[in-house]
Fold this protein.
Amino acid sequence: MTGRPRLKVGFIPIIDCAPVVLAEELGAFERQSLDVEIRREVSWANVRDKLALGLLDASHILAPLPLALTLGIDSVNVPMVNVMTLQLNGNALTLSQGLWREMEEAAPDLLAGGHAALVAKALAVVVRTRVAAGGPAVTLASVFPYSAQNYMVRLWLSSGGIDPDRDVRLVVVPPPHTVAHLSGGVIDGYCVGEPWNQRAVAVGIGRVVLTGPDIWKGMPEKVLGTTEAFADKNPETLKALVKALLEASQWLDEPGNRAEAARLLASPRYLNTPSEIISRTLDLADFHLFHRNHANFPWRSHADWFLKQMVRWGQASPEIDIEAVSDRVYRTDLFRAAADEMGIACPDVDRLPPGGHGEPLLAAVSPAPMDYPTRLMTQTTKRGHSR
């Protein structure tokens, strides 16, 4: 027995699990006198359930998910906290080569514009064409209903006049399974964190048409989540865990360390992906932000934005007290305590005003209904009921 606190910390094989992996590889956990076992998990539902049951003490988790679990709007109702952000950016939207060819044939002028909204409008032409021909709905995947990826897809579709809940079919696919689903024709595209977009490009089945920064440059991607009960019972242990992850995050944001990070992440134990594929995005300036620009701070205004998305898309009641939920779940106090001991400066406030993070304002991307004939609207609605 070491006498050190023993923790089980989960992660999903995506590049933004890097702070968890590197804290292990660099010995940061040990330097904080922690005995940590990091566990690779298969899906976000799996992470959610294991946190709720106490099979994991903490985990790399989707930024909106602790909010949903605390509200009880997911299948599990357990109060959760987010004590630090692990990464900003890092997402992309990949479409199948077949769907892209349909878009090129249907709306070449729109695609020539290159702007994300114009690409969405080109997809809208394909959606109309498929419905008119009695063809299958365009099927797009995100990694979880309460995820930055889901909201990113919805905002993008809305910018092209596509109603995400009526005009297309949205499904959930765990990140490691996205490439296989695209290859098998089960889905037409997906939004996920890297390296799963580059994996599809590398094998020639997908085309990256949109990145996270095209919607919001600086979108909070993953956070460190744990139950509220664990945080209340183990404040010093949790502080030590945050400090270890901060050390790894600082190391990851040094450009000279990215090649070594790619090599370590490539291991079958972690991402099981060639390091050169990981490096394609890891080497891009500001595409993966692990520490700089207060990237680790759990901004409550980020939580406010996610909760507004949940309300907008019918996931949460308009009656929820957004600021109160954000304050409960996004624990800036716990983060500040850890950062202060490491001499890391924190913002003076817990929130920025709407738009202060560069996030899209909701009014700017309100969905415009497609101009369907009544017959086609009926067909589309019936398909929606069968999802």
Observations:
- The CA atoms of residues 45 and 312 lie 23 Å apart.
- The longest helix spans residues 235-252.
- The radius of gyration is 21 Å.
